Amino acid sequence: MNSYSSLASWSDALTTRAVSAVEAVDYFSDRITKINPQLNAYITTDIDRARSAAADIDRQRVAGESLSNIAGIPFGVKDVIDTSGIRATGAAAILDNFEPTFDSTVIARLKNAGALVIGKHNCDAFGHGSSNEHSMYGAVKNPWDVSRVPGGSSGGSGAAVAADLCSFAIAEDTGGSVRAPASFCGVSGLKVSYGRNSRYGSMPMASSLDSIGPIAQTAEDIAIILQHIAGHDPLDATSAIAALPDYRTEIQKSVAGLKIGVPEEYFSAHLQPQIRAVVENALHTFEELGASLVPISLPHTSYAIATYYILVPCEDSSNLARLDGIRYGVRQKAADLYHTYTASRTQGFPDEVKRRIMLGTFALSYGYYDAYYLKAQRVRTLIRRDFDEAFNKVDVIMGPSAPGIAFKLGANASDPLQMYLEDAYVVPASLAGICALSVPCGFVDGMPVGLQIMGPRLKEELPLRFGHHYQLATSWHTTHPAL
To answer: Which position among 167, 177, 317, 430 bears the catalytic label?
Structure first.
């Protein structure tokens, strides 16, 4: 197999026995050994067990048994998602010794289809961050320029796919954590609609926004993965009971005659001019494919960041309360119960996690609940209505995934607000609970730029359809970092 082969190509090669599953594991193992020290994309690897499972797949294939189209394909997992027998740290020291006894539903479905977990990806601790600098296992580096961030919080997953350290990754997106790394690292990443994929077995950050989704080389690869992981799960009360389309068939349909909403708020002064030019060029490509551009407005977009950073810390403070060194987490020795709590949490959480817990606890406290949390929930409803009204006029909405290219490591370390603003274009879709895909659409100063394609809730086939046809018409997704 060639370097940077798509999941679809790996599937064809394995099915025809041009390569074996063991050879696939060895290929990515060799890449990880050679390249991961430069990037720090993996916290934990599980090569030996993956190779053993691969040998079983090979025996079944030789025996002529019926196997799925992803059987024998190695993949990585963001370290906030539970994997049986492989430690899941959440990239925080407080869970350094945690080894789940079960798989999350999404991972179980992939393993049941024969896909092979080869390791756990580094991330911002518990998903708190936009740069992957808030991991207690060290920052992840961008494969295109190791002096820059890979985006967060799923930066390890984005970097691993971009550097060909796994065929695909399963990550988690709360407010852009799949799309931002996909944009900064030049790969494809899908935030599914809230409820499309089960959240069971994912460490909760903000339970009303969290979604598990794939990062891969192409939109077609994502469609293949989604076919295996999507659907209702009785173990997750928030998972949607809804019919699943045949995603790989749906994405083949033409985009001619469909309408693309172009929101004026996503092309404001906050957007770097060079990014704007690249994204507008991508939009013109869709016009050449027969789609039409329709100017629209999403008037409450400017309130999205403020709304997000009230609601998410509130849910953080509740969800992370259990990690105290007593009920869960690494316990630090101390003289009494109070100091056991404080020492365990002080040493177990990075500063960004502590900041969000404090913000959330304040916003939920007596006298402030109505002024902050309740008002933010009302604004969230207005943001969702903006999208509902827009989708009455257009099929999808497009804009940039990020206001700029990947920034330098440490550039925003002392300015949390500036760090939060990096998510200005990805947060609104998360608050609305809709689906959104980021695909590479060009370069600025040698760094990738992402195009964000947003679709109505539970209509993932629409962004994937546009993304697939864009990648058939362009070659940005076939350009890879020199490592």
So the answer is: 177
